[in-house]
């Protein structure tokens, strides 16, 4: 298993007892850990024998999650939020009761009391008026995001307009509502029930406006927010037709790849190829959030399977297959599968009895070494385009996607497409590094490219793009690359030292201490190594229960909210790089945005052995 | 691993709704449906014979709309033979083939050596005919390609369409018959039956 995957293992999967293998035919992936967007490396039996395989010593190197049973408030544990916001206004609480967010710890409480307390703590008057518009202003108490997290976690509806409350109370409720809308924004379009509650609330408030002239400002703001969210409040018609921004999976499109990325929502459309056992394919157009069942229905319709045929035993099943041939059956109820597929994975529709005979598509990349853009472009250009693209992808992720990714299962299925696309990209960059190096036949050229890649990593780090930086370093640490002794020997001493420093910076020891320290010194804007944030969140989530005997574990939610706030901080300033629009720059941009990679570890090893048979 | 270079790729173009998918599905699966499901891009594979050995016939069914020009260019550059479909019930659909034909010329250059078949589909709907078969023939003559009228609905001339297209390939011998032993006579007979005119 690759380091990044270990780092990213989903809830529960770090327990040694859990079988790691992908489910076989018929079993499906069930409710177990979610498929990673990262492509998997082959299971150990398929790995080439000998020294080339991942060293057993490095096993678990990345997996330094504290044991799940460790209590959150344990004072001697290092805070997982080491990179936390030092500018938080709240005073440092005594260490014994310290929560990672630095808030005064709150005792567990039943949901209703919590809500009341939340409203109590809100300042009276219009203090929050300005804060809400910006959403980030310090005038809003920090607990609100926690409140939202809580609402999320407990799965209960957002706060209700309460009877008998005074003006102050109404202010408070409005503040919560405004903040809620501000936080959710477009996501609400995807959530029918939440939209309904808000709609109700909004109508109630509108009925009351004449009574409370003091609330005018808030109500106006609410009006605007509800409008931007495109919740059709006045009538019952569904939201207006959204602009279609189809995601082309496996369609390489120069025209669309050069455009700035915008966030994907579940209702957006995706064009995706679904293959048959003989590698025929149909392209289906579906909602990003479509269930496996929906996808199969489209395929069946296209292929004109008669109803009688699909009702019989030989109904179609949907299978994901990686380039290595690894395959897994998807369950009919699974949703949003497109963004969780591995880089070079494909969807196959077949009957149960043809499952065993499925073979992967031929490797898309020509193993014929040809000079790709990386040999032509300057390292600065490539690094800057990497940073610019990853910033776009990072910005597309809604804060709540981070929460939903880890709370997955405890709440209903939510869409985390943008986060998944970023993780997919992260894995893509890792494989890109290896692919490019292994496609260089001559030793001199390879060593030159290695030097260039280290330079690119250095510039990414300078750009405060720790995502690209990490991905490149991990990519160079791939066993198929690190075994190329001759290549590494040709690297100038200066670069050897530089790379050693990079390895040190990405060393996961002591819970990624070095990296966290470097990150803490950076001022926004910055792109963090997102997988580590997910690891921290997973740890927080698994470390304790959200609800215990009907009481909400407020401390846990505070901590999660605090972690999410660090992400907000990273993005609080726009990242601007000076990129020319010359034709050669556009060429580099297009290259960086649609990397062609080999994600089949076996093939990478094969190429590596061909280049340097005797290495190591 | 299927050998990519060994594939023989046929691409079907034409306006939306003229019956491209119906022709392809009729040929590949033997089915026909009345309902219309817009296509984005589908590719079906079939084993055929090529120069006395086996190869794969790839039939790519495309979208009728001009939503994805880049995809269209890619299919043209990768295609070996082309089927240009219009509906005999729509003059407009014949007009819409012109830019596609021009693009094929532009990308492929010398089109005379490339098998292209102009197809007037839906010839079961004679009562709604807008394009006379002589007009189709004239167009084909101008384009130096072959011409045929078909009906996917009645399964008229469908298999013949694909067989004739492959017969136009002069650079290799491609045939739907895997044993490749179809007699010349048989072919001629089919040609007559199918009222196929090779210009
Ligand atoms: N009468 C008649 N209708 C046809 C024929 N071929 C297709 N159709 C109908 O025309 C419509 C569009 O067909 P389709 O194959 O999806 O068109 P495409 O957009 O070119 O792929 C469908 O409703 C078909 O049932 C035909 O040969 N005769
Ligand atoms: Mg069609």
UniProtKB/TrEMBL annotation, chain A:
Residues 32-60 have a biased composition (Low complexity). It holds the Pfam family RasGEF. Residues 1-95 are annotated as: Disordered. One of its GO terms (molecular function) is guanyl-nucleotide exchange factor activity. It comes from the Eukaryota. Residues 378-614 form the Ras-GEF domain. Keywords: Guanine-nucleotide releasing factor. InterPro entries: Ras-like_GEF (IPR008937), Ras_GEF_dom_sf (IPR023578), RASGEF_cat_dom (IPR001895), RASGEF_cat_dom_sf (IPR036964), Ubiquitin-like_domsf (IPR029071). The keyword Ligase does not apply. This is Rap guanine nucleotide exchange factor-like 1. It comes from Grus japonensis (Japanese crane).
TrEMBL record, chain B:
InterPro entries: P-loop_NTPase, Small_GTP-bd, Small_GTPase, Small_GTPase_Ras-type. It comes from the Eukaryota. One of its GO terms (biological process) is signal transduction. GO terms for molecular function: GTP binding; GTPase activity. It is a lipid-anchor. Displays low GTPase activity and exists predominantly in the GTP-bound form. Belongs to the small GTPase superfamily. Di-Ras family. PANTHER family: RAS, DI-RAS, AND RHEB FAMILY MEMBERS OF SMALL GTPASE SUPERFAMILY (PTHR24070). This is DIRA2 protein.
């Amino acid at each position: 298993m690759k380091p990044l995957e270990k780092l990213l293992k989903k809830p529960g999967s770090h327990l040694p007892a859990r079988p790691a293998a992908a489910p076989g035919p018929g079993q499906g992936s069930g409710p177990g850990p979610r498929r990673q967007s990262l492509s998997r490396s082959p299971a150990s039996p398929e790995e080439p024998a000998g020294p080339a395989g991942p060293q057993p010593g490095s096993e678990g190197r990345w997996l330094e999650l504290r044991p799940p049973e460790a209590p959150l408030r344990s004072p001697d544990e290092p805070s997982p939020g080491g990179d936390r916001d030092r500018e938080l206004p709240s005073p440092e609480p005594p260490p014994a009761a310290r929560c990672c967010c630095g808030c005064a710890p709150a005792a567990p409480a039943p949901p209703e009391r919590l809500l009341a307390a939340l409203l109590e703590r809100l300042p009276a008057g219009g203090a929050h008026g300005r804060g809400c518009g910006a959403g980030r202003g310090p005038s809003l108490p920090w607990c609100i995001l926690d409140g939202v997290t809580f609402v999320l976690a407990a799965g209960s509806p957002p706060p209700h307009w309460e009877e008998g409350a005074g003006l102050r109370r109404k202010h408070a409720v409005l503040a919560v509502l405004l903040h809620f809308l501000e936080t959710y924004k477009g996501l609400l379009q995807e959530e029918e029930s939440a939209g309904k509650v808000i709609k109700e609330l909004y109508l109630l408030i509108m009925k009351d406006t004449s009574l409370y002239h003091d609330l005018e400002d808030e109500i106006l703001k609410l009006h605007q927010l509800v409008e931007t969210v495109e919740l059709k409040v006045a009538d019952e018609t569904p939201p207006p037709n959204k602009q279609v921004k189809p995601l082309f999976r496996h369609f390489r499109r120069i025209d669309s790849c050069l455009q700035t990325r915008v966030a994907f929502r579940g209702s957006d459309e995706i064009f995706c190829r679904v293959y048959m056992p003989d590698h025929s394919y149909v392209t289906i157009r579906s909602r990003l959030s479509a269930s496996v069942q929906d996808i199969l229905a489209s395929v069946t319709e296209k292929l004109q399977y008669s109803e009688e045929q699909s009702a019989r035993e030989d109904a179609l099943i949907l299978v994901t297959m990686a380039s290595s041939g690894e395959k897994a059956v998807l369950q009919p109820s699974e949703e949003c599968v497109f963004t969780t597929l591995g880089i070079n994975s494909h969807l196959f529709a077949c009957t149960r009895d043809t499952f065993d005979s499925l073979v992967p598509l031929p490797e898309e990349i020509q193993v014929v070494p040809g000079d790709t853009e990386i040999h032509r472009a300057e390292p600065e250009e490539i690094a800057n385009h990497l940073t610019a693209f990853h910033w776009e992808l990072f910005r597309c992720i809604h804060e709540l996607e981070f929460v939903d990714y880890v709370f997955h299962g405890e709440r209903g299925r939510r869409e985390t497409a943008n986060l998944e696309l970023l993780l997919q990209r992260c894995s893509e960059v890792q494989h890109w590094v290896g692919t490019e190096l292994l496609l260089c036949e001559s030793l001199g050229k390879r060593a030159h490219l290695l030097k260039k890649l280290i330079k690119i990593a250095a510039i990414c780090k300078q750009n405060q793009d720790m995502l690209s930086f990490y991905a490149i370093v991990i990519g160079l640490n791939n066993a198929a690359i690190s075994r190329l002794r001759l290549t590494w020997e040709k690297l100038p001493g200066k670069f050897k030292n530089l790379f050693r420093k990079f390895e040190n910076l990405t060393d996961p020891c002591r819970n990624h201490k070095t990296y966290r320290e470097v990150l803490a010194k950076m001022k926004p804007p910055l792109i963090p190594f997102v997988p580590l944030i997910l690891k921290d969140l997973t740890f927080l989530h698994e470390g304790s229960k959200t609800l215990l005997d009907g009481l909400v574990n407020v401390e846990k939610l505070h901590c999660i909210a605090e972690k999410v706030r660090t992400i907000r901080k990273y993005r609080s300033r726009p990242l601007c790089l000076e990129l020319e629009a010359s034709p050669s720059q556009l060429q580099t941009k297009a290259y960086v945005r649609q990397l062609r990679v080999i994600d089949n570890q076996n093939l990478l090893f094969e190429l590596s052995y061909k280049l340097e048979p005797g290495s190591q | 691993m299927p050998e990519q270079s060994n594939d023989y790729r046929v691409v079907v173009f034409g306006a939306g709704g003229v019956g491209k998918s119906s022709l392809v599905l009729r040929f590949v699966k033997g089915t026909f449906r009345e309902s219309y499901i817009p296509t984005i891009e589908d590719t079906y594979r079939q084993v055929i014979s090529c120069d006395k050995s086996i190869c794969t016939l790839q039939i790519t069914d495309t979208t009728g709309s001009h939503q994805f020009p880049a995809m269209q260019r890619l299919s043209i550059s990768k295609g070996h033979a082309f089927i240009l479909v219009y509906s005999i019930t729509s003059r407009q659909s014949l007009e819409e083939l012109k830019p596609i034909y021009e693009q094929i010329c532009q990308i492929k250059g010398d089109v005379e050596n490339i098998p292209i078949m102009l197809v007037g589909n839906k010839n079961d709907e004679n009562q709604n005919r807008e394009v006379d078969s002589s007009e189709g023939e004239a167009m084909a003559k101008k384009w130096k390609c072959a011409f045929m009228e078909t009906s996917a609905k009645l399964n008229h001339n469908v298999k013949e369409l694909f067989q004739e297209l492959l017969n136009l390939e002069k650079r290799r011998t491609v045939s739907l018959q895997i044993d490749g032993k179809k007699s010349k006579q048989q072919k001629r007979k089919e040609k007559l039956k199918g009222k196929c005119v090779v210009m």
